[in-house]
């Protein structure tokens, strides 16, 4: 998926492509950093420092708007049956996967965002913060720390320094 998106943006600077991949909910850092570190023409060929920086910035860009406006957007969209069904499914799934956030609040949110597993990351972390009542002032720094941790883990794994499996 990341390669298809990058091909669409072929004439863009590789740093911007990294940032855009990191903005995408499913790809996030897990897609952006490996792509940025891969050699051209498959990837961006960026240094690990540049890849990390642009991926973290891109992954954090939607966090503030999501934390500030999710509740209002949810209330407005939930009036429509299709969104009501979607949110019911999404909330049930997040609650199921977010037990660590429910139990440990701030520390749990850092770990939830910071451990780069499927269906965890900044996007789901903001949703978990909303669901478990973690306010912006506490949630934002936790998500930032989690994204930085996830970025470090993905970078080290992509460079072969650590093996996740």
Describe the structure.
The chain is an all-alpha fold. The chain has two domains: 2-60, no CATH class; 63-153, no CATH class. 73% of the residues lie in helices and 0% in strands. The mean pLDDT is 92.
Task: Give descriptors for this structure.
single chain, 165 residues, mainly alpha, 2 domains, 9 helices, 73% helix, globular
Write the layout of secondary structure elements.
Layout: H1 2-8, H2 14-23, H3 28-37, H4 48-60, H5 63-77, H6 81-97, H7 99-114, H8 122-131, H9 136-158
Helix pairs in contact: 2-3, 2-4, 3-4, 3-9, 4-9, 5-8, 5-9, 7-8, 7-9, 8-9
User: In whole angstroms, how far apart are the ends?
Assistant: 22 Å
Instruction: Give a short account of the largest sheet.
Output: none
Model regions low in confidence, pLDDT < 50 over at least 5 residues: none
The gyration radius over C-alpha positions equals 16 Å
| Total domain count | 2
Strand content: under 5%
Which whole number gives the mean pLDDT? 92
User: What percentage of residues falls in helices of 4 or more residues?
Assistant: over 70%
Structural class: mainly alpha
Number of strand segments: 0
Number of helices: 9
Order of helices and strands: HHHHHHHHH
Using the alpha-carbon principal axes, give the shape.
globular
